[in-house]
Amino acid sequence: MSKNKLKIAFYWAASCGGCEIAVLDINEKILEVVQIADIVFWPVAMDIKYKDVQAMEDKYIDITFFNGSIRNSEQEEMAKLLRQKSKTLVAFGSCAHEGCVPGLANLHDSKEILDYVYTKEKSVVNPEGTIPQTETQVKEGTLDIPRFYDTVKTLAQTVDVDYYIPGCPPPVKLIAEAVDAIAAGKLPPKGSVLAPLKAVCDECPRKRENKKINKIYRVHEKVPEPEKCLLEQGIICMGIATRSGCGAQCLQVDMPCTGCQGPGPNMPETGAGMITALAAILGYDEKNLSPEDVEKLMSQIKDPVGTFYMYSLPASILRRKVMKK
Amino acid sequence: MKEITINPITRLEGHGNISIFLNDEGEVENAYLKIPELRGFEKFCEGRRAEIMPLLTTRICGVCPVAHHFASVKALDAAFNVEPTSTAKKLRELMYEGYIIYDHILHFFYLGGPDFIVGPDAPPEKRNILGVIEKAGLEIGKEVIKHRAYGQKITAILGGKATHPVCGLPGGISKALSEENRQEIEKMATSSVEFAKLSLKLFHDIVLGNSGYVDLIKSDAYTIKTYYMGQVDEDNKVNFYDGKIRVVDPNGSEFLKFEPKDYLTHIGEHVEPWTYSKFPFLKKIGWKGLSYGADNGVYRVGPLGRLNASDGMATPLAQAEFEVMYKTLGRPVHGTLAFHWARLIELLYAAERAVELVKDPEITSTNIRNKPGEPGEGVGVVEAARGTLYHHYVLDKDALVKDVNLIVATTNNYPAICMSIRDAAKGLIHEGKVDQGVLNKVEMAFRAYDPCFACATHAAIGQMPLAVKVYDSQKNLLQTLQR
Q1: What confidence tens digit (pLDDT) does each residue in B169-200 have?
Q2: A306, B170: Cβ pair inside 8 Å?
Q3: Cross-chain Cβ contact A45/B462 below 8 Å
Q4: pTM score, two decimals?
């Protein structure tokens, strides 16, 4: 292990594995990474253990890329350990950044989820109403499994985070640029999101005409015209409120942006940004809106939480649904 | 009683882990594979817009997002009572073959295959992709990386993104294929056929050419006799994207053949308190605990399950290799390690089928969407790389999701994986003696399934580092083994 090389670690908490695939997708770039860095911890691909990390001196690791959200005590403990051992901690991908799709679990608590999954789902055959327990006695001994938290948390809600690489999963281009910036020692100020300071709209080839819309279409209800802005055709596209860097990939196949890259520049959160944008664009070109008009326009938006906070409920000002006891 | 725990380093991480209990003689009494994580997609998808389900459910798994995407889209086709256009079906299937190509390559060369190519007793630090390259040569290593990337590229062209694609809509697909992209896909698919042939040659040379490996495949420790399930076309040939579900009994005779929409008549899920994963079983036989044979409803899915449940492959080269496998191992094959061989046969089929589809004169048609009808209820099934995947939605009048049921590919195999691990442990651990090789062979029993616990955890993406602790009956630590 070279003394001059950077020491890098990868770790994943609650995630789908897509961030790991994104790392594989940098393909031959990984060879450059190996040139400039030693990978000191990567449970996915290497045989280095938790206790080896524990034994490292504080700040031994130069950069840790951490993907996945925090939803049980074990993940929380690992986040804290890696924070302690790393000079720089990067929240990698939407789950670590904002909680992502699994963060929609914050609309429920663990009891509701357990109850549904093990007793109510259509294929379950469970006359005794068995629900998994953290500790179970079997005839040979005791078996234990972790308890999961009621609330999904982002990495920054758990420990101090230095940088964010957004996306679900992060675009290869952003990963490559982050690697280059690290190699050159040219990282921006702490707290930065490592993506261009633009919105997805800036990367989208479709044309905007600054028209008002008064009818909202869902993606399966309308075949969009080829070159016009989707939002101006009444299809909710989050591009206007979403950080760029993805190359507007979803738009390349004529589908709207759903906001996985997190809030656009200078926006506190994706949902608020999108609601503000919609407030400006919903309406009629020729008349002032009455309260009834507003009501009618807004009621066309089905499932606003799932629409505006598909990837960001845990990181949003809403955070979670308050459960009635 | 002694207890051995095979626990990923990440005891702390919420990944699958194995506890093996020994009796006083040091023989294996029982073994448990615990799945320690749950995310609850079925619950939080409630209330979401129906058309967004193909995007939400891809996040169940970043390794097999295309499978979830299309199981979901097919459930929406059914729920909106709309048949996709002929071109849309072909484009979906083409994209699906791209996914099978990258996923099967990922497993064979990066994850499970190293056990065979590098060897089950090789030091752990060699049992990975780099060890494979060392053994097979850098040229082959480059081909591996290139063709995995081709599979990803094919899915990205059609899906917008390879990981977490967005193109699926009820009644079709969002974008037609341009001639320029068609040519690019044809080149990549054609090259993938050659690569699949090369992979099989490697398997023949390194694995089948070694009688020790063949004995291992055939050994009792790795044999469990179960039912098998897979999706087949009208000729009972394997089909990943569409068809009927066929189940064969442990003798290989057809036991069931049903329409995906009737799955609830045939499949139930049992719940145990010590794991977050459920235990699917055939309702007609019933759940009889973790035992196998014709009178327990445990079945297996995935590459070997599909081949056992079918009468063959629909493309010529894959069919020829299918025949070689059954001639060598008999029919049906109960040896768990034959999953690897079956996986490579499927890789060849996927590449051949992709070439057929991309040359189809209809493939660049712009007739790619039919208009959805009124929202209702629908079931969508595809063969994920790891097995049969069921999505079932009930929609309300606003096309919001009212009810979701999912049976994920690896979950189907979970009862069998538990038994495979237990039996491998029983066959390999005696008089309390446990060493590195034995542990890896126990792990091999479940790696063969390519268990994607991403769908429940995500432990399968890499090799699972192990810590093994041996306790005496008073729970005093006798021995610690790690690798």
Answers
A1: 999 999 999 999 999 999 999 999 999 999 99
A2: no
A3: yes
A4: 0.94
Q: Which of B59, B171, B465 sits opposite A47 (nearest CB)?
A: B465
Name the one residue in this structure whose structure tokens are 């069921």.
Answer: B390
CATH number of this structure's domain A6-101+151-183, picked from the four choices 3.30.470.30, 3.40.50.300, 3.40.50.700, 3.40.50.150:
3.40.50.700
Cβ distance A124 to B278 less than 8 Å, yes or no, reads yes
**Contact check, Cβ <8 Å, B34/A145:** yes
**Cβ-defined contact of B43 to A113 (cutoff 8 Å):** yes
Contacts of B398 in chain A (CB under 8 A): 302
Q: Does B278 contact A78 at a Cβ distance shorter than 8 Å?
A: no
Separation CA B257–CA B151 (nearest Å): 31
Res A84: pLDDT? 97
Residue B270 structure tokens: 């049992």
- Whether the upstream peptide bond of residue A268 has omega within 30° of 0, thus cis, is no
Residue in B128, B164, B287 nearest the CB of A169:
B164
What is the pLDDT at residue A13?
83
Helix (H) or strand (E) holding A35: helix A29-36
- The structure tokens 């675009």 sit at A171
In this complex, how many residue pairs, one in chain A and one in chain B, have their CB atoms less than 8 Å apart? 266
Q: Helix, strand, or coil here: A43?
A: coil
Question: Is B62 in contact with A16 (Cβ distance < 8 A)?
Answer: yes
Residue B313 contacts residue B319 (beta carbons within 8 Å): yes
**Dmax over Cα atoms in chain B, in whole Å?**
71
Which residues on chain A are in Cβ contact (under 8 Å) with B13? Answer: 12-13, 43, 74-75, 78
**B9-43 CB burial, b ≥16 within 10 A, e <16:** bbbbbbbbbbbbbbeeeeebbbbbbbbbbbbbbbb
Give residues with Cβ within 8 angstroms of B228, minimum separation 6: B247, B248, B299, B300, B301, B304, B305, B306, B308, B309, B332
Distance (Å) from the alpha carbon of B261 to chain A's nearest alpha carbon: 13
pLDDT per residue as tens digits for the range B389-422: 999 999 999 999 999 999 988 889 999 988 988 8
Calculate helix-pair angle for B65-79, B138-159, nearest 10 degrees.
30
Contact B81, B429 (CB under 8 A): no
Q: Give the distance between the most distant pair of CA atoms in chain A.
A: 76
Of the partner residues B8, B43, B369, the one whose CB lies closest to the CB of residue A116: B43
Domain coordinates in residue numbering, chain A: 6-101+151-183, 102-149, 200-308
> What is the interface pTM, i.e. ipTM, of the complex?
0.95
CA dist., res. A3 & res. A72, Å (int): 36
Q: Return the SS3 of A111.
A: helix
Cβ-Cβ contacts under 8 Å, B52 against chain A: 258, 306-307, 310
Beta strand segments in B285-339, E: 299-300
- pLDDT, position B464: 41
Chain B hits for A235, CB-CB cut-off 8 Å, are: none
Place of tokens 């799932």: A306
Task: Quote the CA–CA distance of B26 and B29 in Å, as a whole number.
Answer: 9
The β-bridge relationship of strands B377-384 and B244-248 is unpaired
Could you tell me which residue, B469 or B97, shows the higher pLDDT?
B97
H or E element in which residue B276 lies:
none
Alpha carbon distance A305, B419 (integer Å): 43
